């Protein structure tokens, strides 16, 4: 399975400099937040495959849901045998629809725990914010969630996809890292994953 993961900025490669066929060959697109409705609709239309998304901390500007796309916030979704769960938002650093305290994010996870247990875990965790001390930083606005760490340690998904940490914030922000047996991918701009 070939997955296109996107987050935070509309990729010029796939959008501004699009040419026919550039989005062919993807089986799934996963958007990790802070992208425009028009961009998500463009991707799902041109790629012709499902697009799953979670909201970023700046997505309270959405006036409507992107057509043809599936929001997986607080949801379990299975596609071609791949089990996927998702959580929107970042740490609360000001008022915002998709900003949460650590306690609020733990509650979001608890709400879908029965589905996780029923399906014996998950293969891909999709969030906007990173996990604590895994590609995050110490400012409240870009701090990761500790509850994501516990979720990953307990269920050991193959992939953890997140956004929020722009790779142009510094020279040493990785796109891929390991957290135990889980491959962590910062989907800023875009990343292609082969499963």
Structure, explained:
There is one protein chain. The chain has 195 residues and is α/β, with parallel strands linked by helices. The chain has one domain (2-194): Metallo-dependent phosphatases (Purple Acid Phosphatase, chain A, domain 2, 4-Layer Sandwich), CATH 3.60.21. The chain is built from three helices and 13 strands. The chain has helices at residues 37-47, 102-118, 146-155; strands spanning 2-7, 28-31, 51-53, 70-71, 75-79, 82-87, 90-91, 99-100, 124-127, 159-162, 176-179, 182-186, 189-194. The chain has a six-stranded mixed beta sheet. The protein has a five-stranded mixed beta sheet with strand order 4-3-2-1-13, covered by helices on one side. A two-stranded parallel sheet has the order 7-8. The mean pLDDT is 94.
């Amino acid at each position: 399975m070939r997955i296109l993961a996107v987050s935070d900025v509309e990729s010029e490669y796939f959008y501004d400099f699009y040419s026919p066929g550039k989005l062919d060959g993807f089986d799934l697109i996963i958007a990790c937040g802070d992208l425009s409705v028009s961009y998500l609709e463009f991707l799902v239309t041109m790629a012709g495959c499902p697009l799953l998304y979670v909201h970023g901390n700046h997505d309270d500007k959405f006036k409507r849901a992107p057509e043809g796309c599936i929001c997986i916030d607080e949801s379990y979704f299975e596609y071609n045998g791949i089990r996927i769960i998702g959580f929107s938002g970042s740490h609360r650093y000001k008022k915002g629809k998709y900003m949460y305290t650590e306690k609020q994010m733990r509650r979001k996870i608890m709400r879908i725990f029965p589905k996780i247990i029923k399906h014996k875990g998950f293969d891909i965790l999709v969030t906007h914010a990173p996990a604590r001390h895994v590609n995050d930083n110490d400012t409240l606005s870009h701090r990761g969630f500790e509850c994501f760490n516990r979720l990953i340690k307990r269920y050991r998904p193959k992939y953890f996809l997140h956004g929020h940490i722009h790779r142009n914030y510094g020279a040493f922000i990785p796109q891929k890292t390991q957290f135990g047996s889980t491959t962590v991918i910062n989907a800023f701009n875009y990343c292609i994953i082969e499963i």
